[in-house]
UniProtKB/TrEMBL annotation:
The gene is atsA_32. InterPro entries: Alkaline_phosphatase_core_sf, GAG_Ulvan_Degrading_Sulfatases, Sulfatase_N. Coiled coil: none annotated. The lineage of its organism: Bacteria, Pseudomonadati, Planctomycetota, Planctomycetia, Planctomycetales. It is an enzyme of class 3 (hydrolase). Residues 84-410 form the Sulfatase N-terminal domain. This is Arylsulfatase. Keywords: Hydrolase. Pfam families: Sulfatase (PF00884). The keyword Iron-sulfur does not apply. It comes from Caulifigura coniformis. The keyword Hydrolase applies. Its EC number is 3.1.6.1. One of its GO terms (molecular function) is arylsulfatase activity.
Length: 578
């Protein structure tokens, strides 16, 4: 509350006290039978024995003053309170054990700066991303299951498939609340101009548009040397753009630039934060490191830091950059006014280990086993999240859209989006957000997190599994990695209790696994309700079908289906009018 608020309230209380004392003196002089009749709000009457004028006046003043204070506090909270800055830091393909806050140095190195976020805030044990880069990043910034947005798998150069105009981002909401918005580093939500972050709520963007190995392809031995081929099919360079339409290609992200490109992105993010601080404007900054996606290229100063290989060396470098961002908040004295989230997009990538992560969870990135979906996640939220907190309830990247919107002042964003939400610049959105607002849970107002269900869609858009509370039912599963994986559908849904068996080993290694499965078939009934719940209003809101890197689904059956739909439409036009 500002000094002017305090002065105003003090004056009001004095004035209120004087008025009440005068009124009480008049009442005391009025004829009385020894008691006063007071009228309750329900219309009934009760009696109060006279009390001394001063005490009675003081009591009423205290009550009225308290009411005024509550009113002023509520007013300030709803409209005039300082909005928190928001800094979201993403790694890439980083597994849970790669953060020493989870494994206490077991991997042979530590990440003290990332750990600091957990120490000064909270760490999550049951945090979920998606099975691939694009899906994970889309779920965070769009707040919708990638099955709705169609952003289920990695985007390739020139692909028209990407973020669409009808999809609101967190940045779109932040703009309505007076925030400056900036995105720095990896985007991976489409590479055409219409897909750029600055066409979707961000004031400025500086970053790359693909996974690192796609950026490196033009340097490959077998890559065509024809400049026209590269122009047509090759990746764009590192893009700098602004919301006014300016787009600058700063050059390719080649293997020469890769060792230090995160330093470029970090410098841009720090500059953005510094400018908004000087302008006294709240900011939403999304920093996306390229670490630790393959293939890793490090500068000489980072190589050999840990003695545990290039991946560990890269993690230490990445942790240092997180430390620079946290130090900047300290130096600007805005750490207490800034929400900091650290996480990543998908589960650990093991396929190219040791240039890859590791995880105790089953399988890896590209699958719907826990190893493909579980991610590190932590948040520092001064005044809301108690330092040193550990959250065991499930949370998804999708949940940060409504949670951060609530922090910025829009607590009912899900309801508003369903009815129709007006963005800045004449934008109109009407979508179904799948995320939940965790802010009441973080504040201690709710004992349990709002999410009880997690949907596991694979990169082809198949619903492979569903988690409901502690239970996971897998209708299908993947064998292999993100490139070689095949989908297998079992006769029965495979049932796992993720508290008893978080690493999903029981069904294959447990001595009574089939008995356990048979005894818990009752789960199929409520699980069907959860599937129906997701699809209940699916046709009422826009959606985009997913794309695929494998055209194996193209066959005569698909053509016959298209022909059948065409014939049905023709029959519909032939129906006699009534």
């Amino acid at each position: 509350m500002t000094l002017n608020h305090v002065r105003f309230l003090s004056f009001g209380i004095v004035l209120l006290y004087t008025t009440i004392v005068r009124a009480e003196n008049v009442q005391d002089r009025a004829p009385s039978n020894g008691s006063r009749v007071l009228r309750r709000s329900d219309g009934l009457q009760r009696s109060r024995i006279n009390e001394p004028t001063v005490l009675r006046s003081q009591r009423i003043v205290d009550q009225r003053a308290a009411s005024l204070m509550r009113l002023a506090a509520a007013s300030q909270k709803s409209g005039t309170a300082k909005k928190p800055n928001i800094l979201v830091i993403f790694g890439d393909d980083i597994g849970i054990p790669q953060i020493s806050a989870y494994t206490m140095g077991m991997m042979g190195y530590r990440t003290p700066n990332i750990d600091r976020i957990a120490k000064e805030g909270a760490i999550f044990t049951d945090s979920y991303g998606q099975q691939s880069c694009t899906a994970g990043r889309a779920s965070f910034i769009l707040g919708q299951e990638p099955f709705r947005t169609g952003l289920l798998t990695i985007g390739m150069p020139g692909d028209p498939h990407g973020i669409q105009k009808w999809m609101p981002t967190i940045a779109d909401v932040m703009k309505t609340q007076g925030y400056a918005t900036g995105q720095f580093g990896k985007n991976h939500l489409g590479d055409r101009d219409e897909h750029l972050p600055t066409n979707h709520g961000f004031d400025e963007f500086f970053g790359n548009l693909y996974h690192l190995n796609a950026e490196e392809e033009p340097e490959g031995y077998f890559y065509p040397k024809d400049p026209e081929f590269k122009k047509k099919y090759g990746p764009r360079g590192v893009i700098k753009s602004t919301a006014d339409g300016k787009i600058d290609d700063t050059g390719p992200l080649n293997t020469k630039r890769m060792p230090t490109v995160d330093e470029e992105f970090l410098a841009a993010a720090k500059d953005f934060i510094d400018r908004q601080h000087k302008a006294d404007k709240p900011f939403f900054c999304w920093f996306n490191s390229t670490r630790m996606h393959v293939f890793t290229h490090l500068k000489k100063e980072s190589l050999g830091k840990t003695g545990m290989g290039i991946h560990a060396d890269g993690m230490v470098e990445h942790d240092g950059m997180v430390g620079e961002l946290l130090k900047q908040l300290d130096d600007l004295k805005i750490a207490d006014d800034t929400i900091v989230v650290y996480t990543t997009d998908n589960g650990a990538e093991i396929a190219l280990w040791p240039d890859g992560a590791m995880t105790p969870f089953r399988s890896e990135k590209g699958t719907t086993w826990e190893g493909g979906m579980r991610i590190p996640m932590m948040v520092r939220w001064p005044g809301v999240v108690k330092p040193g907190t550990v959250y065991n309830d499930p949370i998804s990247l999708i949940d940060w859209f409504p949670t951060l919107s609530a922090a910025a002042g829009v607590a009912d964003i899900k309801e508003q989006m369903k009815k129709g939400f007006a963005g800045v610049g004449g934008k109109e959105f009407k979508v179904h957000l799948d995320g939940y607002n965790f802010m009441p849970y973080f504040e201690g107002k709710e004992k349990k997190g709002p999410r009880d269900t997690v949907y596991y869609f694979d990169q082809g858009g198949n619903l492979n599994a569903l988690r409901w509370n502690d239970w996971k039912l897998s209708f299908a599963s993947s064998k292999g990695n993100i490139a070689t994986g095949t989908r297998e559908v079992t006769a029965w849904a495979m049932i796992t209790n993720l508290r008893m068996d978080p690493y999903e080993r029981g069904l294959e290694e447990g001595g009574e696994a089939i008995k356990f499965l048979a005894q818990n078939m009752w789960l199929l009934v409520p699980i069907q309700g959860k599937v129906k719940e997701f699809f209940a209003d699916f046709d009422q809101y826009p959606y985009q079908t997913g794309s695929t890197l494998n055209p194996a689904g193209i066959n005569y059956g698909m053509l016959r289906q298209q022909d059948a739909m065409k014939r049905l439409k023709e029959l519909e036009t032939m129906k006699p009018s009534r």
